[in-house]
Each structure stands twice: as structure tokens, then as C-alpha cells.
Amino acid sequence: MVRSPIALVVVTAMVLPLALLCSSCGSPSSAAAATTFSQSSIKGSYALSFAVAVGGGTAIDYTGGTGVIVSDGKGNLSGTESYSDTNGTVCSDLPLSGTYTVNPDGTGLANITYGSGSSGAECSGTFAQTLSIANGGALVKTTNIATNVAQLSGDWTRQ
User: Fold this and answer.
1) How many whole angstroms separate alpha carbon 1 and alpha carbon 134?
2) pTM strictly above 0.85
3) Rg of the chain's alpha carbons, rounded to an integer?
4) Which helix (H) or strand (E) holds 76?
5) 139: nearest Cα among 70, 52, 66, 42
6) How far is CA 74 from CA 32, 33, 39, 43, 113, in A?
7) Maximum Cα interatomic distance, the chain, rounded to a whole number of Å
8) N or C end of the chain: which has fewer CB within 10 A?
9) What angle do CA 29, 33, 37 make, to 5 degrees?
10) Region 128-153: what's the mean pLDDT?
11) Is 77 exposed, middle or buried (0-12, 13-18, 19+ CB in 10 A)?
């Protein structure tokens, strides 16, 4: 049986694209690469906001605030924040400083000191919060992890 060169070209032209299309079907290289995060994933100036409920005895104190936090991409934080609470405490332009760590999966932990000795006990202290990096580091979701504190919302948004 003699095959026509035209028939061979037609069959090749039909089968080759299908073979190329399916050559990567189901292969591990076709899966999206996992993102790995590091301290440099959080770098720059971020607008921060938070709302917390602090329980103590039978009363619950609600606190909300905003500020700016700056990350150097190497685990160091600085900035300012202002907040008020339902007890009438108003604290403005308090200095912030702290450190943070980031896990490869985009979670992490920040330890922050706010206020100063001159700010008074009501407007100074420390806190720790968990971090979750989103949108390539443009958004960091936060949760305060102190005892008797329920963080209702909190985030850092790159400016």
C-alpha cells in the first residue's frame, strides 16, 4: 500500500497540535508555583486600622484606631498611631516600634511597643499580633493575640 504524501501531511497537521496541547496536561510543571513569603514581603509604609474589644470583669471596653506603620523589609517596624476607647481615653500620635517575623506560607507575628513613658499608662504598652499577608504584601491582615482581647478587625494596607 502506497501512502500519499498529502495524506501524511494532513494527518500530521491534525494530530500534532492535539499532542502538543495534551503534552502538559496533568504534568506537575503545569501547576501554579507556590508563593514563598519572607520579611521582605512586608516593606514600605502601611495605613493601619484596628477595632478591639477588651474584656475585664463584667465590662467590655471597645477601642478603635488608625495610624501609619513602616516596615524596613528586614523585620523592623516604626510609625505612629492614634486611638480612643469607650472609657473616654484619647491617645494621639503615639510612636510605634517593633519587630516581626514571616513564615514561608505568609503568616507571621509582630511584637509592637506603643507610646512612651511620657504618654502615661493609658497611652503606652505592648502587644503581639498574628499576621497574614495578602495581595503580594499590599495587605496584611492582623489579629491581636493578648488574653481578654477580641480583635474585631485589623489590617495594614500599603500606601
Assistant:
1) 64
2) no
3) 27
4) strand 76-85
5) 42
6) 27, 24, 6, 8, 18
7) 100
8) N
9) 160
10) 90
11) buried
Look up residue 20 and give its amino acid: L
What is the full DSSP assignment across 95-153? EEEEEEEE-TTSEEEEEEEES-GGG-GGG-EEEEEEEEEEGGGTEEEEEE--TTEEEEE
Report d(CA 98, CA 69) in Å as an integer. 10
Average model confidence (pLDDT) across the chain = 82
Q: Is 111 in contact with 87 (CB distance < 8 Å)?
A: no
Q: Which CATH superfamily is domain 39-158 in?
A: Quinohemoprotein amine dehydrogenase alpha subunit, domain 2 (2.40.128.120)
Give the Cα separation of 156 and 159 in Å (integer): 9
Contact at 8 Å (CB) between 113 and 126?
yes
- Which range of 33-42, 45-54, 58-67, 144-153 scores highest in mean pLDDT? It is 45-54
Q: Which three cell numbers stand for residue 117?
A: 513613658
Could you list the beta-strand ranges (E) of 13-58.
43-56
